[in-house]
Each structure stands twice: as structure tokens, then as C-alpha cells.
Amino acid sequence: MTSAASAQAVAQALACVMREDKGRLLSALAYRLRDISLAEDMLQEASISALSHWGRSGVPNSPQGWLLRVALRRAIDRIRAAGRAAKGQADMAMLAEDEAGDTSPEAIPDARLRMMFACCHPALEPKSQVALTLRVICGLTTAQISAVFLDNDVAIGQRISRSKAKITAAGIGFAIPDAAAWPARLQSVLTAVYLIFTRGYAAGPEVGKDLCQEALFLARLLAHLAPNTPEIEGSLALILITHARAGARERGALIADQDRNLWDSAMLAEGLDLVTTALTRGQVGPFQIKAAIAACHVRDSAPDWLQIAALIGTLLRFEDTPVMRLSLAVALGEVQGAQAALGRMTALEETLADYGPFHAARAEFLVRAGDTLAARMAYARAMNLAETLQDRAVLAQRQSDMIR
């Protein structure tokens, strides 16, 4: 093997490890060091060292363990050189013990659940929670995260840096909350994961990474790390049921417009089974209700709007938001008629003035009510607010089909 070929093989091996295990390695380091920025720096230094060391000695049997050990060793050296008084002798001894211990892939403790709770701490605003989760757990670059938020790299980089600094300065623990704090803190984590999914659903491939798959990975990871937790099961079920229809989405955002033969039947069945399992545990929460609503949309040839309206009414007890009230207006409109929907939407006009789906839903019911002029204006507003060209095209087709 030539040196060039060897270098290429080493680079590919390192890229594979970082692609598959960066989140786990970074979480393990941050948990030990109590410093996300230091963990990132040390993992980067270990990665650079790997290129030369592996090139001379070959890729080790446990590349993950090699990277973790070298990163810990570099961290110990930096902490000692800086003379950090905050790092007590007991902490340094623990780090040294970790560095000398078993770092095979099986022996590396999975600290990602702890890290997710740290990234989604209530002290951080929701946008920062999502950005930090994408960076630390999913390993996205600053450029990829800025594409998620349609923001510039500098602003997102500063946001992430401030978030990491706040975690360190505020002494936010890398710990799983106790039983009393678990429900509220878990909702923050699940909301961040679902926001990642919805951003991926809206942005498509433009981010450079499939965010829907990242969210699905995070939901499965949570289910693995905290099994038999009904709200986690509900969150995973919601993502599965929604993502199962991705192959038919280009035919229309509305389920009624989609070809069910293009749905992922295995993924859909998994989601439906999971929401049933979650609900039978008798600890109903908002994500379980949302998954149940999604299930009502797909189980039969036509949505069960009466049941959907009842579920949304229950969900309002947890999340009384304008968007949720819009969902209730749509469901009741399907049961009681267009005027019922439009009457409820009137109260939401100011609050949801810049929310595209509001205008799209209103346009649908205006058509049914026979007010085509107002419907055209509503469709035009919805298209102006659409986030993607695909969504705009779907709305234009819908307008053409509905208004002749």
C-alpha cells in the first residue's frame, strides 16, 4: 500500500468514526471535563493526532477508545499547564484514572442522555437548546446549523459559544434530573428534538444533512437510554408516523392528496404500535396526544375528525397556543362546517398573521364557504410565507384545484 493510499485509508477510517461516534465521544469527554468547549478542543486535537499516529501504526482495534484516551490525556496536560485551581486533586485523579482505564467501545459510558439534558436546560432559550443539541449530540457544523435557522454563521457561532459558556458559568450539571424535575425537563428535550424534525421537514436537503433522520436518531436514542418512558415513546411515535409519509409529500402536504402506496408501511406500523403502547401506560402527556392525533389521520381512508377534535381539546390543557387553537378550528370545521372554522380563525388573525399554515387553512375553508376572492388572497399570503419552493408549489396547485 502506498503512503498516499495509506493516508487516504486513515482519513476515511477517522471520518467514519467521527461520523458515527462523534456525539458519543464528545458527550463522554464533556461529562468528564464538565466543559463542552474544552471537550470539543481536545477531541479535535486527538483527531489531528490520529491522522499521523494511525498513518504510522495503523488504525487501532478501538479507534473510539484511542481518541477518547488521547483527548483525556491532552485535557489533563492543558488543565495542569493552566494551573486551574477549580480542578481539584480528586477531579484530576478521576480524569487520570479514566485516561488509563478501559476505553474499548463497549466500555465507554454513554453520557449522551446527560448531555441532552444539559443542552436543553431551561436556562437556555429554545433556539439555543436546538443549536447546541445539533452541535454536541449530532455533530453538525456551524454552517449546517445556521442553514437550519436561515441565519448567518457568525450569529449561530456566537449563540453556541454563549450557550456553552453559560452552562459552565452557571454550573449547570451534566446530570439526569431527579424524579421531581424529570417531567418538565424531559419536555424541553423532546421539544428540541421535535423542532429539529420540523426544521428538517421544512428545509429538506438544503441544510446538507437530513435533519429528519437526525431527529429520528435522537428520539430512538432517548428511547434506548430511558426505556418504557411514555412521553419518549409518544415523541418517537409522532416522528415515525409523520416521517413514514415523506415519500408521498411531493404530491401534497395534505394527507388526502397523498398516494398511500408511497408511505413507508413498516415505519408507519412501528409508530402506530408505539403510540398504543405509550397510551396504555396510563401517564398521558402532550407528545402521546400528538402521536394519537397523527394516528387518527392515517389509520383509515379518511381522518376521524371527531376524535381528532376531542384529542386537540385535551392537548390544549397542556399547550394552549394559537397554533393549537388553529388545529382545533380546522378539526371542528371538518365536523361542523366551514363557518365554524372561519369563526374560530377570526380570533387568531392578528396573532397568526405571519404564520403561513394559518392562511392556507383559512383559504381552504373560504373556498368551501364560497368566498373565492378572499380565498385567493389567503392563498397568495400563504404562498408568500411558504418556507420552501416545494411548499409554494403545493399551495399553488391546491389553489388551482380548489378555485376554478
Give a verbal description of the structure:
With 404 residues, the chain is mainly alpha-helical. The chain folds into four domains: 3-106; 111-225, no CATH class; 228-303, no CATH class; 316-404, Serine Threonine Protein Phosphatase 5, Tetratricopeptide repeat (Alpha Horseshoe), CATH 1.25.40. It contains 19 helices and no strands. Helix 2 packs across helix 3 (63-82) and helix 12 (265-279) packs across helix 13. The radius of gyration is 24 Å and the shape is elongated.
Structure, briefly:
This protein has 404 residues and is mainly alpha-helical. It contains 19 helices and no strands.
Tally of individual domains:
4
Uncertain stretches? 85-90
Span from first to last CA? Answer: 68 Å
Number of H/I helices: 19
Kindly report the average pLDDT value.
86
Largest sheet: none
The radius of gyration over CA amounts to 24 Å
Approximate helicity band:
over 70%
Descriptors for this entry?
404 residues; mainly alpha; 19 helices; 70% helix
Q: What are the SSEs and their pairings?
A:
Elements: H1 3-33, H2 36-57, H3 63-82, H4 89-100, H5 112-119, H6 126-136, H7 142-148, H8 153-169, H9 182-203, H10 211-225, H11 230-243, H12 265-279, H13 286-298, H14 305-315, H15 322-336, H16 338-346, H17 356-368, H18 372-385, H19 389-402
Helix pairs in contact: 1-2, 1-3, 2-3, 3-4, 6-8, 6-9, 7-8, 9-10, 9-11, 10-11, 11-12, 11-13, 12-13, 13-14, 14-15, 15-16, 16-17, 17-18, 18-19
